[in-house]
Specification:
By secondary structure, this protein is α+β, with helices and mostly antiparallel strands. The chain is built from five helices and 17 strands. A seven-stranded antiparallel β-sheet has the order 3-15-8-17-6-5-4. The chain binds 2-oxoglutaric acid (AKG). 2-oxoglutaric acid (AKG) binds next to strand 8, strand 16 and strand 17. This is Phytanoyl-CoA dioxygenase family protein. It holds the Pfam family PhyH. InterPro entries: Phytyl_CoA_dOase-like (IPR008775). GO terms for molecular function: dioxygenase activity.
Length: about 280
């Protein structure tokens, strides 16, 4: 039996991890970041989620379950994009360095680097704090090489009750990306009518579930990590617990892909001025 091992900034994957990631589109890695290391990250996490940088983040501080313009007091699924851009003290932190080491083991046909990061927090007792099921590639511009490893570090335990990550294992092998559309929200003034929205109204995209979709939940302990690829269907439910769910997301992509994205003005900031029509899949 092979065990995972953290040694300095290295975390050794097993052959089974590498095969599962390629075949099923995800892997769960226990005990990647220690309690002491998380304490540093959590201070910054709480700083952002409390809205302390919101005055200079515009749409990079938003709710991933509700349209832009939702008042901060009503947020359920708090999203702070690109925290190291706003507070460079966080850049190249221990999670970044260990995740880079793991990425280098998963991706050997080129060099993948950190493309973007985000803090995601589900407030306690918010059944609406759902992250609708999607494929990450549905959110991004077309690029020649799509390879991605997206890491979710559990800053708090991630459980069934607080809305842990859920995946459809193996859906990364579907030949076509599913159709993603902006989430329609009910117009409260016009009960019964549903507003059609564009990506300028809300960042959130949704897909249609298909019969046969089998959801698998991925609960993890504090300090553990899930890694998912760009094609696997995934999302998460609301938080029915009395505690926060806090997650630090980091995505690594091929260095040439990152160059292509930046060339098209795409930095993963919600403030990017992107012509989405050019990116339609
Ligand atoms: O952790 C979650 O609740 C969802 C995160 C997610 O969808 C992503 O990182 O792509």
């Amino acid at each position: 039996m092979t065990f995972h091992q953290r040694n300095g900034e290295q975390y050794s994957l097993t052959n089974e991890d590498i095969i599962q990631y390629a075949e099923k589109g995800y892997v769960v890695l226990p005990d990647v970041i220690s309690n002491d290391e998380i304490a540093f990250i959590e201070q910054w996490f709480d700083h952002f989620v409390a809205g302390n940088e919101s005055h200079r983040m515009a749409r990079d501080f938003c709710d991933m379950s509700q349209p832009y313009g939702t008042p901060i007091e009503e947020f359920q699924l708090v999203n702070a994009m690109l925290p190291s851009k706003y507070c460079p003290e966080l850049a190249n932190n221990i999670f970044h360095r260990v995740a880079q080491n793991i990425t280098d083991q998963l991706y050997t046909r080129g060099k993948a680097l950190l493309d973007y990061e985000q803090f995601l927090a589900k407030k306690p007792n918010k059944s609406g704090a759902e992250f609708a099921m999607h494929q990450d590639l549905g959110y991004w511009p077309k690029t020649a090489n799509t390879w991605t490893a997206t890491f979710s570090l559990a800053i708090t335990p991630s459980t069934l009750e607080n809305g842990c990550l859920q995946v459809i294992s193996g859906s990364n092998k579907e030949p076509e990306l599913r159709k993603h559309v902006p989430k329609p929200y009910r117009n409260i003034d016009n009960i019964g009518k549903t507003n059609a929205v564009s990506r300028d109204d809300s960042h959130l995209l949704v897909i249609h579930n298909e019969t046969g979709d089998k959801i698998q939940h991925l609960p993890v302990t504090r300090g553990s990590v899930t890694v998912h690829d760009e094609r696997i269907i995934h999302g998460s439910s609301g938080n029915l617990s009395d505690d926060w769910r806090k997650t630090y997301v980091m995505a690594f992509r091929d260095s040439e892909t990152i160059k292509q994205e930046r060339g098209a003005g795409f930095t993963h900031s919600h403030n990017d001025k992107v012509n989405w029509n050019e990116f339609i899949r």
